[in-house]
Predict the structure.
Amino acid sequence: MEKRFNGNFTQQEPIPEEGIDAALAVLRSGRLHRYNTVDGEVGETALLEQEFAEMVGAKYCLAVASGGYAIATALRAVGVLSGDTVLSNAFTLAPVPGAIFSVGAVPIYVGVTQDLTIDLDDLKSKLPQARFLLLSHMRGHICDMDRLMDMCREASVTVIEDCAHTMGASFRGVPSGRHGAVACYSTQTYKHANSGEGGLLVSDDPEIAARAILMSGSYMMHGRHIAAPPPEVFERLKYVTPNISGRMDNLRAAILRPQLRDLPERVERWNVLYHVMEHALANAPQVVVPKRPQDEAYVGSSFQFLLPDFPSDTITGFIKRCENRGVELKWFGEPEPKGFTSRYDSWQFTSIERMPETDDVLRGLIDMRLPLTFSKRDCELIAEIICQELNAG
Ligand SMILES: *Cc1c(COP(=O)(O)O)cnc(C)c1O
């Protein structure tokens, strides 16, 4: 009989017991708001910021309500104004162009390579059109960051990093998010740390950090932050920075702190799962698995492969057969986006210019999540089913 996979592609691990205890302590105190502290007390949110800043080696960190909010705040904090153009990835998730739209700016999309990183040649040709690049390390694929930063520096383009899929990753030893002027992370359930909703923003620039803190809704209580610039920076900015509330609360921060501590161990487990998939599909005929550069230390929390020579209806049949056997694949080439598989041409709130090479990559792009509730054996079975169904078509 045909084997079937019975796991759940969206089931994450439980919150660590220590996080549950810390959350209960916050609930029992009643002090959920981050600035609601008693004398001498440092709230969970301020501690989370301090610990995350330390983890990635940043001077300043701000915890906020979501990853998308962190990105919009970062854009405002670096000075993006209504009507400005912002370069960004054609291959990313919808909250990225959405954040650009939310500040009244206009996205200009940059293409994607077969290795699923931003096309640096396309970027180079488009750099003169904008002063900002919102770089999304989509699905954890990190481009040659040294080359990208050199190009952007030369063109005086400020880089904002979207690290929703690279929390815990690095490039040539530099933690992801530490190349640009500011970086944003998400702690939404499907990312690398889970507080339901949540986001983190880091920077070494005191003005960017102070503006972000003031905008997030600090009500002149910025003194209760630890990973924040000194008071004089706030003095200069406090009357000219609007409050656009989007703080994180102590309950979420309490859940996140033990998860951050466990992140290196979780990254190792993700990469074991990723390597099972990579190894099994590397030699499958007609399948292209993106090459990952030696310089990239990635987090394999999802897996991608390309079927460049498959006609669309063949892919439709393949996806359906996998689904019938319990293997839930996402296809970025599907004519109608499903779930998170929207493409740049689905974001019709601004005008777009077609990119034929990017279209070719996305047409054959298959994606799957690898939650940590999967075992190595689960991934072996998933890969076996995928290989069988590729041959069955
Ligand atoms: C999830 C995600 C975001 C936004 O994070 P939210 O916390 O859901 O707002 C941004 N970029 C990418 C690539 C994401 O996957």
In short: The chain is about 40% helix and 15% strand. The chain has two domains: 17-261, 263-392. The radius of gyration is 21 Å.
